[in-house]
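W.,

You were right to be curious about this one. When I first looked at the sequence I had no strong expectations either way, so I just let the prediction run and decided to look at it fresh. Below is the sequence, 521 residues in total, followed by the output.
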Amino acid sequence: MIDTVQDKAVQRLMDMRVAASLGGGKDKLEAQHKRGKMTARERIHLLVDPGTFVELDAFATHDCNDFGMTDKKFVGDGVITGFGKVDGRMVYLFSQDFSVFGGSLSATMARKICKVMDLALKNGAPFIGINDSGGARIQEGVASLGGYADIFYRNVQSSGVIPQISLICGPCAGGAVYSPAMTDFIFMAEDTSHMFITGPDVIKTVTGEEVTFDDLGGASTHASVSGVCDKKFSNEAEMFSAVKRMLAYLPNNNLDDAPKSQTSSQDDVSLATAKIGKIVPSNPNLPYDMTEVIQCVVDNGSFFALKPEYAPHIITGFARLGGQNIGVVANNPMHLAGVLDINSSVKAARFVRFCDAFNIPIVTFVDVPGFLPGTAQEKGGIIRHGAKLLYAFCEATVPKLTVITRKAYGGAYDVMNSKHIGADLNLAWPGAEIAVMGAAGACNVIFRSDIQNAKDSEMKRKELVDSYSEKFANPYIAASKGYIDAVILPEETRAYLIQGLEASKSKRVDRPKRKHGNIPL
């Protein structure tokens, strides 16, 4: 009799496990593949190290009777939660299952997600959300909405304590978008990922505007236009591979240091050193790609760009320098001359604050002509948005190092991690120009009457510009005042920065006691 009872108990367990593995059923799982999407379990297995995933609440189900649902109860209720290892490091995660009620959020699903979020925070491990959901489960009414709010609250409590990453692997609509929006990074896949508050049908009904899913909330739109997406990929496999790579740059939590890695070989360093001095054109008005400078300075192949298509005139991303993980912020003269504007300021400010929260040193490469002028920028709030980047750099207490490669004009010089706002090591290349504005513009203001009254105004202007450039538009004035710590050759940049990181690794900064500052949002 005992054996029979035990056999039945084991068989019941096996049956439950099979039911959990099937989600909404074989036909629904096959439909996922036909859409070019993986199933919820396939995504987990692609992300975590083999044999390390431990599932939690696998047998949880919704209460059909209370909310007028069908009598069919799906084991797991549309989400898989648990923990596992990525390259040997523990992460907590959830993966929504679109095969169960379209991945819609129920009260049960919310409880499962909140439970694993609490565990991630308690144990100081990164949290990854794999989103594939049609939104709130309408049949559950306010219970579903309350579930979203419970998740949002935990996103905020975890912010700055553990890294939070959102992977959009299908629809993410309505209130569902706000949880990813409060996480640190959002990745999307082309053709299959969509994020929007209201879908095309609702928009057409309310405004009469016709728009496709891709144009409204596809990966390309959010990667290049809205800036919601930090990186887009051709498919889910590429996205999961990139997540693994990015995790290697991040600490487990705000009390841990990011893992170190091996440095580049001497041959790689020598090749980069020989190339770096040839990147910046002798003509100050010609563009160049600052990414090339970054790649010559950091460890070979280590640069991992974020938001590369959004506000491309500023570069953000992770890299390694002498094996040390760093955050990189850089003006890019290849786009809009590297100017600061609303979008670039907000993009860089958020990245700086992430690095500061997780003890990642920041290296800034500067070639900036100033803030973008124009009525659109002024009316759009460039004063307020530009102040976000200034605030972020001022607030940051991690090691901060700066290299001025060509020019640093006006207020943008102050904002781009200058010595005045707490940078630890400020370097400039010999051809750097540090001034209120360019020599030509300055002379047109200062010597307006002299130029107008000269017999040959163009000759006079050139003479004054040359004189101004010689006396003021160079790094030595700033160096003489201690605003630049060293004027160096381009090929010396890597060595100086590595030594600067070493010197500031034990940096401590005391701040006034306060609840929090009031960043100009």
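Here's what jumped out at me. Residues 266-437+474-503 form a domain with the 2-enoyl-CoA Hydratase; Chain A, domain 1 fold (CATH 3.90.226.10). And, maybe more interesting for your project: Residues 2-22 form the longest helix (21 residues).

Coffee later to discuss?

I.
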